Amino acid sequence: MDRTAAVYNGQKNNTIKKNIDNALYCESLCRMFDAVNSLVIALQEHDKEDKGDWIPDIFEISSNILMDIMKDYNMPDLTILL
């Protein structure tokens, strides 16, 4: 492969990678907005009722959203790596 073709392929690969990153970010962000909204409602209800020392775990919510996105797009199950 000559130098010009290699540069072109590199730029093309970077564009594809950037678009994939943006798509994943946008999808996860949209789902996080809904999840955080539900979490805020749950926190407000928690303030009205005494449910003990309940602490929401935003990292678990975010991880579940990422796993759901992967399932929705038939990506391999990465939980086997845990």
Summary keywords:
single chain, 82 residues, mainly alpha, elongated
Can you tell me about this structure?
The chain is mainly alpha-helical. The chain has one domain. It has 2 helices and no strands. Helix 1 (3-48) crosses helix 2. The longest helix has 46 residues, at 3-48. The chain is elongated. It starts with a helix and ends in a 10-residue tail after the last helix. The model has no long low-confidence stretch (mean pLDDT 78).
The proportion of residues in beta strands is under 5%
Structural class by secondary-structure content: mainly alpha
What about the largest sheet?
none
**What is the distance, rounded to the nearest whole angstrom, between the alpha carbons of the first and last residues?**
40 Å
The count of DSSP E runs of length 2 or more, i.e. the number of strands, is 0
Count, helices:
2
Approximate shape: elongated
How many independent structural domains?
1
What's the gyration radius in Å? 20 Å
Mean pLDDT: 78
Low-confidence spans: pLDDT under 50, at least 5 residues?
A: none
Order of helices and strands: HH
Helix content: over 70%
In short:
By secondary structure, this protein is an all-alpha fold.
